[in-house]
Structures are given as C-alpha cells and as structure tokens.
Amino acid sequence: MAKKISERHKHVPHRETLVRIKRASGHLRKVESMVSDGEECIELLQQLSAVISALESCRITLLQDHFRACIAPAIAVESKHLVSELETVIKRALK
Fold first, then answer.
1. How many domains does the chain have?
2. I need a labelling partner for 7 at 20 to 30 A (CA). Which of 21, 46, 70, 75 fits?
3. Containing domain of residue 29, as a range?
4. 8 Å CB contact between 5 and 74
5. pTM across the whole model
6. In angstroms, rounded to a whole number, what is the distance separating the alpha carbons of residues 57 and 47?
C-alpha cells in the first residue's frame, strides 16, 4: 500500500503559519482581558472578528503551503493517490 503524500517527506517548519497563530493567540489573550475588564460587547465582537480573521489566514496559508510543498511535487511523481489526498485535505481544511 502506498504511503500518503504527507508521509513521504519531512516538512519544513511553517514559519508564516506560526506567525499567524501567534497573532491569533495575541488577539485571543486581548479578548480574555477585555472580558475580565468588562469591556463593551461591540469591542469584544470586533476583537473576536480579528481572532477569526487571523485563524482563517492561518488556515489558508497552511493549505497553500501544503499544495506547494506536498501536492505539486507529487503530481510529477505519483498522481494515482493524489485525488484522494486532495479530497481529504480540502474536507479537513473546510470543516
């Protein structure tokens, strides 16, 4: 049985993804502080939108990285299992 594309290589660190995760984490800490301090709901909602936006950006960056680093090279080598893995990646990314 063939290995999944993701098991056939060692992945380089996701620097851009990590930056975005840290940004989202900072926004989330701010929300926690604002809730504790009794800030207005509209301000909390705005900050939560920033958290969601940062996480969406992270997800898109990670998905793009996967296509560039994992999927594209596999097309040239082995396309038989590619469709199945693409379906899995997209389903997991869009949950």
1. 1
2. 21
3. 14-93
4. yes
5. 0.67
6. 15
